[in-house]
Amino acid sequence: MHLTAVLERAARRAPAKAALVTDDRTVTYAELLDLARRAATVFRDAGVEPGDRVAVMTFNTPGFVVAAFGAWFAGGVLVPVNHKLTVPEARYAIEHSGAVVGVVSGELAGTATAAGPDTAWFTTETTVAGLPDFDASTRAAAPIDAPVSEDEDAPAQFLYTSGTTSSPKGCVHTHRTISAVGPLITSTLGFTRDERFLLAMPIWHAAPLNDWLLTMVFLGATTVLQREYDPVGFLRSVERHKVTAFFGAPIAYLAPVQLARAGRLALSDFDLSSVDKWLYGGAPLGEQVARSLVEAYGTDRFFQVYGMSEMGPVGTALYPQEQLTKAGSIGRGGMPGVDLRVVAADGKDAGPGGTGEIWLRADTRMTGYHGDPAATDEAFAGPWFRTGDVARIDEDGFLFIVDRLKDVIIVGGENVHSQEVEEALRGHARITDVAVVGRPHAEWGETVVAVCVTADGADISLEEVRDFLADKIARYKLPREAVTVASLPRNPSGKLTKHVIRDGLVRTGA
User: Fold this and answer.
1) Rounded to whole angstroms, how far apart are CA atoms 175 and 51?
2) Which pLDDT belongs to residue 89?
């Protein structure tokens, strides 16, 4: 289905129903459809032709949603841009995608215009001198009668990956692949048209955009937009708007708990009883953390979801009854409509007790990486997408991610999973952050290097590291080098960029 048809269908079924809700505004489905058609005229007048890319760099605001659907009505391709990026980082996505027109929240206009000086920028939310006002232009424009194109196989999105192992890559999704996400997510989590989903995580991320916003439009449900996450605002939004579902990284749940422990708020002061689904992703929860969240929020209705931008994102789910008994797992097998394999080094499927790379297959898979056929070929194995995530399968068939494939360190023919060593080192009292990487070694192939940030800033010795780990991991996994740094490089999503760390070790020899 073309994504414009998804919105048209929702507006026909329930024109007066709230599609988007903020603290000071409600946009019905009829209004959203009208604004999207008007925005399409704005984009067409700005020179957008079918297939042209439209960059959108905003907070969680109605302007993002109007711009996205406006781009699709105009035949354009949406390029969501992380609003936290610096100028060089944003420049990469804007230039690589070839965005001809962009919409940016007014306070971010300086970054956007510096990053994309050849892109025709409009502002939303607030006005900026010298740039046209997208919101006013949209209200003044005549609505387009029909989508410029209804080709379901035309590109709809370029989603840029986190870039943890290399430069970010642009996942090309079509209208067909993205419109297939909603039914799969709905069947997995049991969403209904009565949902009031709180979107507080950044809307430009693949999951908030496709799994949650567009699934709510698919159902004709309501999305509550929190402009930007903050712990107290999150709790207030749940209470005020009678939210039924929320998705966040684990820290989004932990932050209010930490404030409560510090005596700065009481969770019991907020009515959270309307929520039926507390969803999290980005990292699994250990048993101790899972138990603390169940106790703090007074419910066991937690769901872990795992997926990748390349897959829409869809993948696996861990359900409430499994949160404690299988803490740390991403689930057992794929979501309904998602096929999953764990492929061992010999190319055969791994069984219980085995370890291998997760491969996924679904109708939501991207068509490839923009302008990078070599990376596309490497990521695909026939109809399968090779995730690069290495998982262990337990005796009951549940998957536990142990590493990224490119982060596995091979020492004398033995595989060392960097995350296992990192987890052990995080128990050291002096270590506040750590990355474990491999350095090329003439005899052993690679050697294990622990790159540490210490609480006191003083160097930590190799002997101290090895002594601490001696009874925790096998001897061949022990680091042969320890490096102390002031901080570790991370991408805007907070994930370690280990390729940068490895390059730095090689470049400096430190």
Assistant:
1) 12
2) 85
How many helices (H) and strands (E) the chain has is answered by 17, 25
Query: Closest Cα to residue 435, out of 363, 351, 496?
Result: 496
Burial of 363 (0-12, 13-18, 19+ CB in 10 A): middle
Please enumerate, as own/partner, the contacts of 343-352 that have beta carbons within 8 Å and a separation of 24 or more. 343/386, 350/393, 351/393, 352/393, 352/394, 352/395, 352/396, 352/397
Domain ranges, ordered by start, for the chain: 27-150, 187-404, 408-508
DSSP string, 105-168: EGGGHHHHHHH-TTSEEEEESS--TTS-BHHHHHHHSPPPSS-S---TTSEEEEEEP--SSSS-
pLDDT for the residue numbered 164: 52
Residue range 27-150, CATH number: 3.40.50.980
Q: What is the pLDDT of residue 9?
A: 98
Regions of the chain with pLDDT less than 50: none
Sign of the dihedral defined by the CA atoms of residues 201, 206, 211, 212, in that order: positive
For residue range 41-93, list pLDDT tens digits in order. Answer: 999 999 999 999 999 999 999 999 999 999 999 999 999 999 988 898 899 99
Comparing CA positions, the residue from 231, 297, 434 lying closest to residue 289 is: 297
Q: Which residues of 35-49 are buried (b: 16+ CB within 10 A; e: fewer)?
A: bbbbbbbbbbebebe
In CATH, what is the architecture of 408-508? 2-Layer Sandwich (3.30)
Which numeric CATH code is attached to 187-404?
A: 3.40.50.12780
Cα 471 to Cα 153, 281, 422: the distances in Å are 55, 31, 15
- Which pLDDT value is given to residue 227? 97
Q: What confidence score (pLDDT) does residue 165 get? A: 52
Name which of 82, 107, 111 is nearest 97 in CA terms.
Answer: 82
CA neighbor of 297 nearest in space, from 261, 253, 345, 358: 253
Rounded to an integer, what distance in angstroms lies between the CA atom of residue 212 and that of residue 246? Answer: 9
What whole-number distance in Å separates Cα of residue 63 and Cα of residue 288? Answer: 40
Neighbours of 247 (CB within 10 A): 24
Say what the pLDDT of residue 402 is: 84
Q: How many Å apart are CA 349 and CA 102, to the nearest integer?
A: 45
What's the pLDDT at 505? 83
Q: Are 360 and 154 in contact (CB under 8 A)?
A: no
CA distance 278 to 258: 18
User: What pLDDT is attached to residue 242?
Assistant: 98
